[in-house]
C-alpha cells in the first residue's frame, strides 16, 4: 500500500483532504481511483489507512478507516556527516532515514571537497528524506539541520558523542555502547562521520577536547557514505531497536 507524509492539518476527524504533489502522484503516476486504499503519515507519530473518495482537479478527499501509532526508535541518533561529492550525501540521507536516524547535520571539514550547499540542494535533500520516510513507514521525518563547520559542531553537541576514526586511541563501538547503557527510556547519541579523506589528526584532537570519544567501526576502511549507515545500524542493534516488534496499536 502506498504511503504519503502529509501535514497534520489535512486531517479532520475521519476525513482527509490531500493537496499538492500527492494529488499528482495518486492520480497521474499511480493512477489510483475512488475506493482504493493508501496510508498517510502525519509526521507526529500516527499512521492512517485512508479510503480514497472524490478525486478532483487539485485535491482528493478520503475517509480514515484505521489509525495506529508508529513508534520511533528510543535511541535518537544524529549523524554529523561531512559533506560529500556527487550523490553520496544523498545516499546517506536515504539509507539512514530508512534505518531510523533522527537527525542529520551536514558538516564542513578540512578535507571536504564540497564546501557549500545551494538552496536547491537543500530542497532536494528534504525530498529524499521525505520519500525515504514514506517508503520505510517512518511516522516522523528526520530533521535536516543547516550545515555548520566541524569546530562549531563539536562545540554545540549534547549527549553521548562519538567520532569515527581508526587510531591507537579508538575504542570499539560495542565497548562504548555497553559502557553507556540507557538509564532512562531514551538516549541521545551523536556520531561524526568524516569526508572521503577522513578527519585530520587536528580535527580528531579537537573533537576529543570537546568530550567526543574516538571509536572504530571495525578493522576495514569504510567509505564515507557507508560508515554512517554501519554505525547507525550497530547502535540500533546494540540497544535492541532492531529486535523490537512492529507496533500495532489501533486507536
Write the layout of secondary structure elements.
Blueprint (H helix, E strand, L loop, with lengths): L2 E3 L5 E2 L2 E5 L1 H9 L7 E5 L4 E10 L3 E11 L5 E8 L5 H12 L3 E6 L10 H18 L6 E2 L3 E2 H7 L3 E5 L6 E2 H7 L7 E7 L7 H9 L3 E4 L7 H15 L10 E2 L1
Parallel strand pairs: 1-4, 7-8, 7-13, 8-9, 8-10, 11-13, 11-14, 12-14
Antiparallel strand pairs: 2-3, 3-6, 4-5, 5-6, 6-15
Q: Quick recap of the structure?
A:
With 251 residues, the chain is of the alpha/beta class. Helices cover 31% and strands 29% of the residues. The protein has two domains: 67 residues, Hypothetical PUA domain-like, domain 1 (Ribosomal Protein L25, Chain P), CATH 2.40.240; 164 residues, Alpha/beta knot, CATH 3.40.1280.10.
CATH fold-type name of the largest domain: Alpha/beta knot
Would you count the extended β strands for me? 15
Number of domains: 2
Helices and strands, in N-to-C order? EEEHEEEEHEHEEHEEHEHEHE
- Proportion of residues in helical segments: 25-40%
Low-confidence segments, ≥5 residues, pLDDT <50? none
What structural category characterises the helix and strand content? alpha/beta
For the record, what is the CATH homologous superfamily label of the largest domain? SPOUT methyltransferase, trefoil knot domain
What overall geometry do the principal axes of the alpha carbons give? elongated
Sketch the major β-sheet. Answer: 8 strands, parallel
Give the distance, in angstroms, between the N- and C-terminal Cα atoms: 20 Å
- How many helical stretches? 7
- What fraction of residues sit in β-strands? 25-35%
Residue-averaged pLDDT, rounded? Answer: 89
